[in-house]
Write a structure and sequence with these properties.
mainly alpha; about 75% helix; transmembrane helix; membrane; Androgen dependent TFPI regulating protein; transmembrane; ADTRP_AIG1
């Protein structure tokens, strides 16, 4: 994809996520279910935090594109490194986890993750913007441009650290309010909840590995075939004088 086209895409994606994040954090305050919007407000939900994460990622991506367009390559290289780290470790695995886990649990029992009382507050389009559109956006980003993944150990340590921070935030909210962020958590014993968090982390790690696999399959093989084609053309051109 041309840099100018990529810059346009990243700019539009940034505006979209900024708009969605603004919309969910400014839903009308009247008739809010008190059991949903307790301590921490919307900022206790992984979905909302993911929207902010995506807005930051696409903002950084747009900045990198602009720097490349104006030939500030040294600055662009630094920003691209930050962009790739942000995408590989957080943006792709978290978006994938949010979308797949939400709709899986919603199909099983929506009251566990998205009580029916929210239907009168959050419009349908906003629900899909938060929980559905994030997945195709993440896949499209992999198709649009290659990303350099960090060393596996470094990537997983960073991902695990961020997961630890969010779990700590969830537990802190429970210790203050006596209410779980998601009603689902109330079904577990302490040991069961620990197992659930560990299982969720394992799923997120699998999405990290899947993103790395897709990136390698799409862009790694492309580079391989391009190199192979270059070698073939070079050898073919050497043979032309001999044949002549």
């Amino acid at each position: 994809m041309e840099i100018s086209t990529l810059a346009t895409y990243h700019c539009l994606a940034f505006v979209w996520y900024f708009f969605v994040a603004y919309s969910i954090t400014h839903v009308r305050t009247e008739e809010r279910p008190s059991e949903v919007f307790l301590y921490g407000g919307q900022w206790k939900y992984l979905t909302v935090l993911n929207l902010v994460l995506q807005a930051v990622f696409y903002g950084v991506s747009f900045l990198a594109d602009v720097l490349r367009l104006i030939k500030k390559l040294r600055c662009a290289k630094c920003i691209i490194s930050s962009r790739d780290l942000l995408f590989s470790v957080l943006a792709f695995p978290v978006s994938t986890f949010v979308s797949i886990s939400f709709w899986t649990l919603y199909t099983y029992n929506r009251e566990l993750v998205y009580p029916k009382s929210l239907d009168g507050i959050i419009p349908l389009w906003l629900n899909h913007a938060m929980h559905t559109a994030v997945l195709p956006f993440a896949v499209l980003e992999i198709l649009a441009t290659p990303h350099r993944y960090p060393a596996k150990k470094k990537g997983l340590i960073l991902l695990g650290f961020v997961a630890f921070l969010y779990i700590s935030w969830v537990l802190w909210i429970y210790s203050v309010t006596g209410e779980w962020v998601y009603p689902l958590f109330a079904l577990f014993s302490p040991a069961g909840l620990a197992a659930f968090f560990a299982g969720s982390l394992a799923i997120v790690v699998s999405f990290y590995n899947f993103g790395e696999f897709l990136n390698r399959m799409i862009w790694g093989q492309s580079k391989f075939w391009f190199s192979l084609l270059s070698i073939w053309k070079k050898n073919y051109l050497k043979l032309i004088p001999v044949i002549a």
